[in-house]
Write a structure and sequence with these properties.
269 residues; three-stranded mixed beta sheet
Length: 269
């Protein structure tokens, strides 16, 4: 199809509400159109790009024995109450009631749904290990959407869930998946990213990695040791310095400080 026949407008002027270059280029090039704060529609070029990326992901997940499934966007609140996250997650989780006054949520992640899907199937040790994954629309009521598609409220997410009978087997499979994600980035044309140790957050778990790419518009900080190969998000970096208070201690007493009104004055006093 010729560009002139594509639905969408392409123009030279930079939109005034676009702070990040990538956001401005996608709007100017006729890739995306804002619908609401942090919510976008995709024109045909952006849709075709996402389809190609999704195909790369599917091929890599299938290579590590993943099985693609599909979970509902709307989930009963009872599933989230069962895991304890219905109350634990903040207002980024959208909660509502349907016409029958049943508590429901919009899926921002699908751990609960994945367990609900397989718990009858996985009733014997010989069914393990297995992995299921999906590529699906998610909604998270992000407090500060920014930078076009970088931080949004509605987004397409590939999430995978692994089920194992031992920690050792889980760790071995985790390493396989980590390599698969590295291949995804390389095949998609962004090999400059690196995996760093990350905070698992609401997902839980003892080990977590996130892929980072250095950029002037980034908001995270990472620590890297070129000698030992240690890499981590600053929030998840191990603290190896032990601060010990060696100052002499004494009972708290009142001290008269006439005319002292600031911390600097008190220090001098």
């Amino acid at each position: 199809m010729k560009v002139r026949n594509l639905v969408g407008e392409r123009f030279k002027e930079r939109p005034s509400d676009c702070v990040v270059d990538s956001h401005a280029l996608m709007v100017r090039g006729g890739y995306i159109k804002p619908v609401a704060n942090g919510i976008f529609s995709l024109y045909t070029p952006a849709k075709r790009i996402t389809q190609k990326i999704e195909q790369i992901i599917r091929e890599e997940m299938d290579m590590v024995d993943g099985q693609e499934v599909m979970f509902p966007v709307v989930l009963p609140g009872a599933l989230w109450e069962e895991s304890g996250r219905f109350q634990a997650v903040d207002s980024t989780l959208v909660r509502f009631t349907d016409r029958n006054d049943t508590s429901m949520v919009l899926g921002m992640t699908h751990e609960e749904a994945s367990v609900q899907l397989v718990r009858e199937f996985a009733n014997s040790y010989n069914k393990y290990p297995f992995m299921i994954y999906q590529i699906q629309t998610k909604f998270r009521d992000e407090a500060r959407p920014r930078a076009g598609l970088i931080r949004v409220r509605e987004f397409t997410m590939k999430d995978a869930y692994y089920f194992h009978t031992s920690q050792e087997d889980l760790e071995q499979y985790y390493a396989r998946c980590l390599r698969a994600y590295e291949r995804v980035y390389a095949r998609a044309g962004v090999p400059e990213v690196i995996a760093v140790a990350a905070d698992s957050g609401m997902m839980g778990g003892s080990v977590s990695h996130e892929f980072m790419m250095l950029t002037p518009i980034g908001e995270d900080s990472i620590v890297i040791c070129p000698e030992c190969g240690y890499r981590a998000n600053m929030e998840a970096a191990d603290v190896i310095v032990k601060n010990e208070n060696t100052l002499p201690t004494a009972e708290l007493t009142k001290v008269h400080t006439p005319g002292v009104k600031t911390i600097e004055d008190l220090t001098g006093f």
